[in-house]
Amino acid sequence: FEKSYFEDINDYVKLENALKESEPEIIFHLAAQPLVRYSYKNPLETFQTNTIGTLNILNIARRVKNLKAIVIITTDKVYENKEWYWGYKELDPLGGYDPYSASKACAEIIVNSMRQSFFSVDEFKKSHNVLIASVRAGNVIGGGDWSEDRLIPDVVKAANDNSSAIIRNPKSTRPWQHVLEPLRGYLMLGERLLLEQKEFATSFNFGPNNEGDLSVEDVLKLTSSFWDKISYQTQVDLNAPHEANLLMLDISKARKMLNWTPILNSSLSIEWTIRWYKEFYEKNNILTINHLEKYLEKLS
């Protein structure tokens, strides 16, 4: 049985009706305003959606029958950025310079507050039956992302238009990973929560191996090797809003506790992503199922 609801997460009444009517056993909360540059133009919307939207989910969850688990998806940008050359761990201080990052850090604080106040692990199976975890994923790539101000969507759209993409920060380093990698992690974590394993009601990082920590420039070189139409030029905007230059994640906790580890290296992740868009633009063919099948083959 499947029913879809297309609503605004900020509409408390409609969200409550949808959750109470569907009575899910598990909630994966991915609804968000996910763009850094957009958040500078629309800070109120960003905080409302990412912070209060998360609170809406958690408050309504207190009265949803049969609910057993919630996985809240935030971002690697929740950490107070110190331009470290090593990965942030789950217990490192939260921060957020821009409205997007800060709104997601606020969401993490809300998760922790609601967990301690209403979904305490110590009170599990006594005063409530729900376990809550939060997950922080690195820069996710993969076919089907059409968002503005994202590196690969920008360059493939430019390639399709026979133009050059404008690159703002070629030296910025991020933890790039294919979308199927963290999704597998979310499902593995959700399974542990449904099995009532209380130690997993905490936060987890999901990111690439160290070789996946690439600069924008490195990523662009790989993209152009998989599609010769890709072209770009650098135009540093001195008046551009602030963005972190160096950001990496420590994924040792997910490795140890979940036995999760990335299986696609950076080159293959980028190749799959570029081939998805190339196939879509040139042949109107969607490779999503093909990539999922190939990914599952690698797991077996």
Automatic annotation (TrEMBL):
Residues 7-263 form the NAD(P)-binding domain. Keywords: Lyase. It is an enzyme of class 4 (lyase). Pfam families: GDP_Man_Dehyd. One of its GO terms (molecular function) is CDP-glucose 4,6-dehydratase activity. The keyword Lyase applies. Its EC number is 4.2.1.45. Transmembrane segments: none annotated. It comes from the Bacteria. InterPro entries: CDP_4_6_deHydtase, NAD(P)-bd_dom, NAD(P)-bd_dom_sf. PANTHER family: DTDP-D-GLUCOSE 4,6-DEHYDRATASE-RELATED. This is CDP-glucose 4,6-dehydratase. It comes from Campylobacter jejuni.
